[in-house]
Design a protein that fits this description.
Elements lengths: L1 H6 L9 H24 L8 E4 L2 E4 L2 E4 L2 E5 L4 E7 L7 H14 L5 E9 L11 H4 E5 L1 H5 L2 H15 L19 H4 L16 H11 L4 H12 L1
Parallel strand pairs: 5-6
Antiparallel strand pairs: 1-4, 2-3, 4-5, 6-7
Helix pairs in contact: 3-6
């Protein structure tokens, strides 16, 4: 649903102060990552060069890569996805696989890397960008996802070009939802999402039984049984 909402200008939730702070941190990490790549991942002796935040497209699929290192000796590229976190997340493999599918249509891609912050780095004095980052080779794991991503992106395209959101699955996190008017239009004031410390398994059961019920719908039979 979020994809459809974005494509059809139905995003109604504005960025919070915290969201803006996180975005600004991301920009700072990107600038430092650029310095890291230019200094430590490019072989000047072999005339390698950095291609920074270039846009690519393949039919209706588009993207802007974070960084590519061009290697004229093999006429190929190493791709770098930059993250401000300190570890690799599962969705990162899918993000890079999507990029690989598009860029490899026109260019030879050699290796795929995720560049993230080094959780073991402790700053002492001047910032040491060589120690600040870790470049992990994720090529093999990304290539394992190619077929799955190819199918998923096709489905995503069909969703995005739909004229109506009818039938598109909504999210289950109303607190973080950018389009509550689409995903949670009939959500009551006090629903199962407001119950603290409830497991996702129980929430799913009640969701399918009552369809985002009010808390009173859940408590009523419990009260009757204990009367």
């Amino acid at each position: 649903m979020h994809l459809w909402a974005k494509k059809h200008n139905e995003i109604t939730k504005s960025l919070s102060t915290f969201d803006i702070h996180i975005m600004n941190q991301g920009y700072e990490v990107e600038n430092l990552a650029k310095d890291f790549l230019e200094t430590y991942r490019i072989r000047a002796s072999e005339n390698e060069s950095l291609v920074w935040q270039k846009s690519f497209s393949d039919q209706h699929y588009t993207l802007r890569s974070d960084a590519l290192v061009y290697k004229p000796k093999s006429d190929s590229y190493n791709l770098y996805e930059i993250k401000s976190g300190t570890s690799i997340k599962r969705e990162n493999y899918y993000d890079v696989a999507y990029q690989y599918l598009i860029i490899s249509k026109k260019h030879k891609i050699d290796r795929l890397f995720l560049l993230h912050l080094n959780k073991n780095y402790i700053r002492k004095g001047k910032l040491d960008i060589e120690q600040l980052f870790v470049a992990e080779d994720i090529t093999e794991k990304v290539l394992e996802k190619i077929e799955e991503v190819e199918i998923t992106r096709s489905k995503a395209w069909e969703t995005a070009r739909s004229k109506s959101p009818k039938g598109i699955e909504h999210c289950y996190k109303p607190g973080d939802c950018p389009c509550p008017g689409l995903c949670h239009l009939h959500l009551p004031d006090f629903s199962i999402y407001d119950i603290p410390r409830i497991t996702e398994r129980k929430r799913s059961f009640w969701r399918w039984t009552f369809w985002t019920p009010k808390i009173s719908q859940i408590l009523s039979p419990l009260i009757q049984n204990n009367a």
